[in-house]
Q: What sequence folds into this?
C-alpha cells in the first residue's frame, strides 16, 4: 500500500485520525484527503498538514461533541505532527457546489485541539487542490466529489483575497505584529501573485521562488527572511515581529493590492 507521505510518523498520525473519525461518525464519513503542501508536492518537516474530511450531511451536536473529544486525544499523541494538523469537515453537497464558498464549516486550526466554525478552507482554491491533486487517505477518488473549477474563477477569488485580506491587514496591523504572521503574510502574498499569473494553485516555495525572479529585487531579502522564519510556528506566534520587516511586509501587501501581476494568456 502506498503511504500518503514520506514520513512514517506522520502517516501513523493520519491513520489514527482517519480511524478515529470513522469511529466517531460511522456512516456519515465519506472520505478524507490531504490538500495544501502535501497535495501540491512541495512540503517539508515544517509544513502544516492540511486535510479535508467529507461527510454525508451537516454535523449534528452529538457528532461534533464526539469529534471535539477525538481531536483533543489526537493532539496529545506523542508526535509533533499531531499538533500540525489543520482542516475542515465538508458536507458533500457543499464541497460539490462551487457557489457555496465561504459557508462556515467545522474547522481545526493549526496548533489547535478543538473545532470552531470557520470558512477558512471553504474556497475554490481548496476545491481545486482536492479535486486535482488531493491525496486520498480514505474514500473514493476526490474528483468524484468535487466539480471542476475554472482558471477564471480561481483568478477572481485570488484577486479578491489579495484585495480584501490586504485591506484587513492594513486597517488593523497590530493583530498580525508577530513573527509568525509577518512571515506567513509575505509567503502567502508571493503564492497568491504566482497563482494569479498561472491560473492554478501552487505552493509557498514556488511562489517565493517566482517572486524573487519576477518582482523588484528589493523584495528578495524580505522573502528570504520570511522563508527562513517558517520553522516552529508555535513559538514564533508568541514572538514580536522584527519592526523593520513588519513595515516592509505592510508595504509588500500594499504593492500586491495596487500592482497585481497580469495573468498569463
A:
Amino acid at each position: 500500500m502506498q503511504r500518503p507521505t514520506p514520513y512514517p510518523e506522520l502517516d501513523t498520525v493520519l491513520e489514527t485520525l482517519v480511524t478515529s473519525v470513522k469511529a466517531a461518525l460511522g456512516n456519515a464519513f465519506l472520505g478524507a484527503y490531504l490538500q495544501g503542501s502535501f497535495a501540491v508536492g512541495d512540503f517539508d518537516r515544517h509544513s502544516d498538514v492540511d486535510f479535508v474530511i467529507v461527510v454525508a450531511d451537516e454535523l449534528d451536536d452529538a457528532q461534533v461533541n464526539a469529534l471535539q473529544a477525538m481531536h483533543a486525544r489526537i493532539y496529545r499523541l506523542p508526535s509533533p505532527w499531531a499538533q500540525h494538523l489543520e482542516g475542515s469537515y465538508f458536507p458533500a453537497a457543499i464541497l460539490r457546489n462551487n457557489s457555496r464558498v465561504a459557508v462556515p464549516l467545522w474547522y481545526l486550526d493549526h496548533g489547535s485541539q478543538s473545532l470552531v466554525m470557520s470558512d477558512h478552507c471553504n474556497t475554490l482554491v481548496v476545491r481545486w487542490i482536492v479535486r486535482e491533486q488531493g491525496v486520498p487517505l480514505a474514500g473514493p477518488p476526490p474528483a468524484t466529489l468535487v466539480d471542476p473549477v475554472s482558471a477564471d474563477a480561481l483568478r477572481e477569488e485570488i484577486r479578491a483575497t489579495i484585495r480584501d485580506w490586504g485591506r484587513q491587514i492594513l486597517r488593523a496591523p497590530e493583530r498580525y505584529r508577530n513573527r509568525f504572521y509577518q512571515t506567513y503574510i509575505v509567503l502567502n502574498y508571493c503564492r497568491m501573485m504566482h497563482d494569479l499569473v498561472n491560473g492554478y494553485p501552487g505552493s509557498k516555495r514556488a511562489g517565493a521562488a517566482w517572486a524573487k525572479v519576477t518582482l523588484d529585487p528589493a523584495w528578495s531579502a524580505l522573502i528570504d527572511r520570511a522563508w527562513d522564519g517558517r520553522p516552529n510556528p508555535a513559538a514564533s506566534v508568541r514572538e514580536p515581529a522584527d519592526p523593520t520587516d513588519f513595515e516592509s511586509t505592510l508595504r509588500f501587501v500594499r504593492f500586491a493590492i495596487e500592482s497585481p501581476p497580469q495573468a498569463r494568456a
User: Anything to note?
Assistant: The chain has a mean pLDDT of 94. The radius of gyration is 18 Å. The first strand starts at residue 29 and ends at 35. The beta strands are 29-35, 49-55, 85-91, 105-108, 115-118, 135-138.
